[in-house]
Write a structure and sequence with these properties.
Helices cover about 70% and strands about 5% of the residues. By secondary structure, it is mainly α. The chain has a domain at about 25-225. The longest helix is centred in the N-terminal third of the chain and has 32 residues, at about 10-40. The protein is globular, with a radius of gyration of 19 Å. The termini are far apart. The model has no long low-confidence stretch (mean pLDDT about 90).
Length: about 290
């Protein structure tokens, strides 16, 4: 069966690739939205932290025999702890001043982390094998879908949904949101606001590292893998609305699908379609699709 001269199998294949990309866009933009929405910091180090998650998994496998499943837990904890140190030493001084200072600081940190790993491992990518439990394919509707890709899409969706639920529908999330609006009032109720802010940053960073572990078997582990995706992720966050948790998730998955469809019908525009959409959205609604006017 052909659709506009394109086979149904080819179309579904591109949609699957689009969903894979959208899964990483959603996870990374979710972490960025949490950090910006709750901490008021534009975290340009996010791409490097995504890359660090992949490298923790790679180093754990090659040097310590650490399994993929263990890396899904350990890498976010390791990179999240590094994020806590960064927040304590540097970022907490920048919360009440212009966003530009945080952007410049985190951009410099990203370059430092990339350079350190490039000096150690070079610029070429390192392979990371798919776990045995997720190797092979499943037959669905006459097509064979790789198990690992299905796992990435489902796991990303569940993680994003749970994160949104915690922040928007639980008492903890209410405390977090209140702490950004009136930290002195929240502190008066006996809640340690600075600790909450630090852990929130660590959690956002941990999401980036988790995405890096999940990306490792699909893409080669490289010091530049974060730089290749972070610009697109920032565009996704802007389109969804800076600081909007729901906007980050829905826009991430949606733009992944749009990118996949563009590769089918007009492949030359696939690398720029997200940025074209960003320009159009900003012209119509500068606060983003799900953002609030200030």
């Amino acid at each position: 069966m052909d659709i506009f001269g394109i086979s149904l199998q080819g179309l579904m294949g591109q949609l699957l690739i689009g969903l894979i990309n959208g899964s990483f866009y959603a996870l990374l933009s979710l972490g960025l939205a949490i950090i910006f929405g709750l901490l008021n910091i534009i975290n340009f180090t996010h791409g490097a932290q995504y890359m660090l998650g992949a490298f923790v998994a790679y180093i754990g496998l090659t040097r310590f025999g650490l399994s993929y499943w263990a890396s899904l837990v350990i890498a976010p904890l390791v990179v999240g702890c590094l994020g806590v140190v960064i927040e304590k030493l540097f970022l907490k001084k920048l919360y009440k001043i212009d966003h530009l200072y945080g952007l410049l600081l985190t951009f410099g940190m990203a370059l430092m982390l990339q350079s350190l790993l490039m000096n150690e491992y070079g610029s070429s990518g390192k392979p990371y094998r798919v776990p045995e439990a997720l190797s092979g394919s499943l037959a669905v509707g006459g097509m064979f879908l790789p198990k690992y890709r299905i796992w990435v899409i489902c796991a990303s969706f569940v993680i994003c949904l749970l994160t949104w639920f915690v922040i928007e529908r639980t008492k903890l999330g209410a405390y977090l949101r209140a702490a950004t609006e009136n930290p002195d009032l929240v502190q008066s109720f006996g809640i340690n606001v600075p600790r909450m802010v630090t852990l929130t940053y660590g959690f956002g960073v941990g999401l980036a590292a988790l995405a890096g572990v999940m990306a490792a078997p699909l893409y080669q582990v490289s010091p530049m893998m974060g730089a290749d995706i972070i610009i697109v992720v920032f565009a996704v966050v802007v389109i969804g609305g800076m600081g909007s948790i729901l906007g980050a998730v829905l826009t991430g998955f949606g733009l992944g699908l749009v990118e996949g469809l563009t590769k089918v019908f007009y492949s030359e525009a696939s690398n720029t379609v997200i940025f074209v959409i960003m320009v159009l959205v900003l012209l119509v609604k500068p606060s983003g699709l799900f953002g609030e006017k200030k």
